[in-house]
Design goal:
The chain has about 280 residues and is of the alpha/beta class. It contains ten helices and ten strands. Strand 1, helix 2 and strand 2 form a beta-alpha-beta unit. It starts with a helix and ends with a helix.
Length: about 280
């Protein structure tokens, strides 16, 4: 079974959209998401465009701020601080990666925790790892929702996550652990990776290499979630970290690229923005 992220994302966004209608009447304005893009990386441009499009679709106020590659770290931090104090901004997202002269950690730390719709702020990360209330990072949250939608049992299962980034690998491993999976975090230097992955009931792949996971690495009946977005060096087309044609035969469920995790990340960003908005309104009233 191929799980459509596009379809589930549509359902989630529809739910957000109807809640936005309600909150507009109740609080006098819709949630406002601000996305900052530094530089002109085509992949980042396309991600940011998708986020703005989804924000408008659910009825948010959406602002995209484009800054040149040459912006100084200080200027970027000042921009974030001014958005932090703006009462009518609910969510702030700075698209990563940033140019090398800008310290990403500093940028993430500067975003007010209550407006951190990405869930990247260190206070948010700490809350996640301590099982405290937190904003769940969008891609891991989307992955768990996809598994649930597909009816994949998580508790008691063996999950293998390939990749250990702050954005995907580490948080998704923690979220699977909290759902009582037994989790292995593997990476490019894991020895005999096929042996490790072929024991996985749930295989999450976020290594960033085109068609890295082949048939021999997948257990029969496994659920395979492909977080990769790559260009196929052969034909230049978009492809995942999983060789879909090969692995589809073995997996019980598998996500496509495009149309799998990508749309779910954006739908969860919409949910997170609405949550941040509601938290603020409930504090003020
Ligand atoms: N770059 C790749 N994924 C993400 C994401 O989820 N959020 C941000 N801000 N940048 C990213």
């Amino acid at each position: 079974m191929v799980i459509s992220g596009t379809q589930l994302a549509k359902e989630i966004k529809e739910k957000v959209r109807s809640q936005v209608e309600e909150v507009k009447t109740k609080y006098g304005r819709p949630p406002h998401l601000v996305v900052i893009l530094v530089g002109e990386d085509p992949a980042s441009q396309s991600y940011v465009k998708g986020k703005g499009k989804d924000a408008e679709e659910v009825g948010f106020k959406s602002t995209t701020i484009l800054k040149p590659e040459t912006i100084s770290e200080g200027e970027l931090l000042e921009l974030i601080k001014s958005l932090n104090t703006d009462e009518e901004v609910d969510g702030i997202l700075v698209q990563l990666p940033l140019p090398k002269h800008i310290d990403e950690e500093k940028v993430i730390e500067t975003i007010d925790k209550s407006k951190d719709v990405d869930g990247f702020h260190p206070a948010n990360v700490a809350a996640l790892w301590q099982k405290m209330p937190c904003t769940y990072p969008c891609t891991p949250k989307g992955i768990i929702k996809l598994l649930d939608k597909a009816g994949v049992e998580i508790a008691g299962k063996k999950a293998v996550v390939i990749g250990r980034s702050n954005i995907v690998g580490l948080p998704v491993a923690k979220m699977l652990l909290d759902r009582n999976a037994t989790v292995t975090i593997a990476h490019s230097r894991t020895q005999d990776l096929p042996k490790v992955t072929s024991e996985a009931d749930i295989l999450i792949v976020a290594i960033g290499r085109p068609k890295f996971v082949t048939e021999d690495m997948v257990k029969d009946g496994a659920a395979v979630i492909d977080v990769g977005v790559n260009r196929d060096p052969g034909n230049g087309k978009l492809c995942g970290d999983v060789n879909f044609e090969e692995c589809e035969k073995k997996a019980s469920v598998i996500t496509p690229v495009p149309g799998g995790v990508g749309p779910m990340t954006r739908a969860c960003l919409m949910e997170n923005t609405l949550e941040c908005f509601l938290k603020k309104q409930n504090k003020n009233n």
